[in-house]
């Protein structure tokens, strides 16, 4: 099972949490991906707690700003740095950090950690091995872990007496059974499934299940392109869409459109991060529907 690590990176400015008390107020611009719901509530509680305690003591104020998804926050961070208007701290996926480090856009926090007595060995080993942290540097800090899951409309599946899937073959049969089309008009009433275009997350997990990967450790070649596993995954996906029961992702706002269709009973199942579980439970309750979740399906 592939889990994506979401980390904090510091753009062009040392992490002020390691600093001593300031004579003048310091505002720290913190960009993140938590727009609303339970995830935003948890983030805001952390920011408020810091501002009321350590921040108050050291004359530091953290100002949080929701930017968008992980691709959006990476793009906007790069543009902001070019314009000289960069944030101080950014939430970003660990797979996106390499470019920022190679371009010299991040600050090494290790000297500040050592000065403050922060022991980096207290970080779990996987965090220490992330690119940028493994060679006597500390360009990022762990924030959350994200696990892909299979979300489905349990109300709908129970009405059809379906068994939740655990494999890709079972996903195909399960979602085909959820698919509904008006016999007279040809209009699709319920799509069975949707998967978003996220090769660093869902597709990379599928490749790992098939014993392959996007890149070799040295980054010089792609086993998945050479051994046919990437072609297999993409061909399967294309077949599902061509058969009609799998909804193609929207070109913009794909995630929000997908979930709205799910809450409206127009989409039977999809893949998403465990990070959205609480918000999805709440939205389904409000829609009068029961949510079902299963582990990420396997090839």
Describe the structure.
It is built from 13 helices and 12 strands. The chain is an alpha/beta fold and about 300 residues long. The protein folds into 2 domains: about 5-145, D-Maltodextrin-Binding Protein, domain 2 (3-Layer(aba) Sandwich); about 150-295, D-Maltodextrin-Binding Protein, domain 2, CATH 3.40.190. The longest helix has 16 residues, at about 35-50. The chain is globular and about 75 Å long.
Mean pLDDT across the residues is: 88
Give me the Rg, rounded.
22 Å
Q: Name the overall outline.
A: globular
The amount of beta strand, in percent, is 15-25%
Work out the number of β strands: 12
Q: Write down the oligomeric state.
A: single chain
The proportion of residues forming helix, as a percent range, comes to 25-40%
Unreliable spans: 1-5, 12-19
Q: What fold name goes in the CATH topology slot of the largest domain?
A: D-Maltodextrin-Binding Protein, domain 2
Give the total of domains: 2
H/E element sequence: EEHHEHEHHHEEHHEEEHHHEHEHE
| The level-1 CATH class of the largest domain | Alpha Beta
**CATH homologous superfamily caption of the largest domain:** Periplasmic binding protein-like II
Structural class by sheet pairing and helices: alpha/beta
End-to-end separation in angstroms reads 11 Å
Count, helices = 13
CATH architectural category of the largest domain: 3-Layer(aba) Sandwich
| Largest sheet descriptor | 5 strands, mixed
Spatial strand sequence of the major β-sheet:
3-2-4-1-5
